[in-house]
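Q: For a teaching session next week I want to show students how multiple molecules come together into a single three-dimensional assembly. I've collected the sequence lines for a complex. Could you give me the predicted structure tokens for the whole thing so I can convert them for display?
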Amino acid sequence: MKLYTYYRSSAAFRVRIALNLKGLKYDSVPKLFAKNEHRAADYLSVNPQGLIPALDIDGAVLSQSMAIMEYLDEKHPEPAFLPADAIGRARVRSMALSIVADLHPINNLRVLNYLRRELKQDDDGVNTWYRHWVTEGFRSLEQLAGTYSKSGRYCYGDSVSLADICLVPQVFNAKRFDCPLDDYPTVMRIYEACEKLPAFAAAHPSKQPDAA
Amino acid sequence: MKLYTYYRSSAAFRVRIALNLKGLKYDSVPKLFAKNEHRAADYLSVNPQGLIPALDIDGAVLSQSMAIMEYLDEKHPEPAFLPADAIGRARVRSMALSIVADLHPINNLRVLNYLRRELKQDDDGVNTWYRHWVTEGFRSLEQLAGTYSKSGRYCYGDSVSLADICLVPQVFNAKRFDCPLDDYPTVMRIYEACEKLPAFAAAHPSKQPDAA
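A: Of course. Below is the structure for the complete assembly, covering every listed component.
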């Protein structure tokens, strides 16, 4: 398997964690955002969306981190990324999607670039934007994790799920943007517990071949 | 089942289509965005995210349209929202997520409100933003649908999938914002074929009890 990745991409970070949890080996193919390599013709022919990550499995290229993680969970059921019951599965997916489909897309690099270039926002404007959406997203995530985490080590129940895989890269990015995180003790406890796990640690941006 | 909905919410529109396709009856509980009813304390106690839709199933409240649709598909397998093979399932989820997790969140009402209120954008600025992200999203969707649609009636293969359920509300909204759509003939052919299906037609914003 080949993973088209970028060390600091939150979505690529998720997929790296997922691959590590499943014990799957892969080759990293870094695409440098600074050089716009993810929008170059050769990559667009691989992934027309021009977004990172994409996973090449024997020539079939899958995109969208959530779709890739669901695929990995279907093909390699252990350890399971979702609980066994349908309501539990929906709750975990909902927590994951509160990051994947609500928080992260608004704070993605291409959106921040638009704010800078088209709307002439300076660092302050961009940071205020970023922190606003983190606050929106983390407030509900804190409440959901408070309800569904059993041990306080994972978002749901007492094992790693898709929700944790999405939470850790989002917290990493929030810290990078100096977002105040004191109001989210459950989220932070989960972050600190998960980032120590070997599958998460090895997926960390600082451990990637393209890390600056 | 009770669906917390808003007639013009793209995410609620998806879930209405999904419920109709599965032949499931539900009661609509409209939350008027104009009156900020989705951020009122009584609704936040139901769905801490304060986002629409949420589906109440015997007291268990599920949020996030994609999580709700996956739940419905697991509990009520016919007609299937996803193909049988894992790669096909990943492709359909990827197309759906290109809307759910990339295009729609950036153009959601709360983001447009931020542009207006905090960044002082006028109608032109907001519309330019909206159309920019539609162009980004539809360009790749056109290519993906061109590759994976068999008959040109559906995004993937020859039956309705999660991708179509997400595409129709997104096109409806793009039309509302007068986005130029001539460059997306496959997307538009799918839209026109699907919106005629009874499950889609009955879910249309204009048919909802809270339609203006």
